[in-house]
Amino acid sequence: MHKKGGILVILALAILIGLILSIQMNTSDAYEQGGLITIAQANDLERQLKEVRNEKESIMVEYLELEQRLKEIEEQSLSEDALLQAAMKDLERYRMAAGVLDVKGPGVIITVDDPIPTEENPGDGYSTIMVRSDLLLSLINKLKDAGAEAISINGQRIIARTEISLAGDNVNINTVPTAPPYTIKAIGNPDTMEGTLNIRYGIVEVMRNNYGLQVSIAKQEEIEIPRYSGVLRYLYAKPVDTTGAEADETVDIADGSETDQQ
User: Fold this and answer.
1) Which residue has the higher pLDDT, 28 or 189?
2) Which of 17, 97, 168, 187 is disulfide-compatible with 107, CB 3.0–4.6 A?
3) Does 10 or 87 have the greater pLDDT score?
């Protein structure tokens, strides 16, 4: 009985040892096979990574080129916009200087009217300021000397070609008949213009003392002066064309349109 029991124990141990050896061998084979698969996958992933990196570098190069191109386009656009804005500002200044734009700003308002009739001096029925319309010209010139940037008389914008002349019973300004009282608006430095007009023996003193005219000057923080409403046509003067071609056209400065000469 003891002998049979020992044999059974030995057999059981042998089977157990065999099972352990079998499990160990299977585990070892699985480990080796698993290691081979992991290396292959690693190599494949490394290859894919290199391809992705190369593709990324190529895309980055293209992106940088496009970014640079976009920057150049933006700079060119900004440059063109700046040139256009500068040209528009220049055009606006020229139109303001020509008097074909409505303008506003600080300045003075001057009112000139005939003397008040009295028993001692009832007047002769004629308007003093209309007869002496040259005084208006002198007043305008003094305002220009004082730096006035825009001037109007009774709503008529004073420009380089403005004429002030006596025509019959009216004073024509820009060929428009006007009559007293005259309201002169001037945009500029109010203090400078007021000081220039009120200077001793100046135009205002002459108008008051020598001709009895009523003259008042009021400084204003903002004055509006309308644009020249007429049409400026140049029939003889022409711009110098550097290409040698002569422009056979009349330019309407007031609205920028052009009409062929007849």
Assistant:
1) 189
2) 187
3) 87
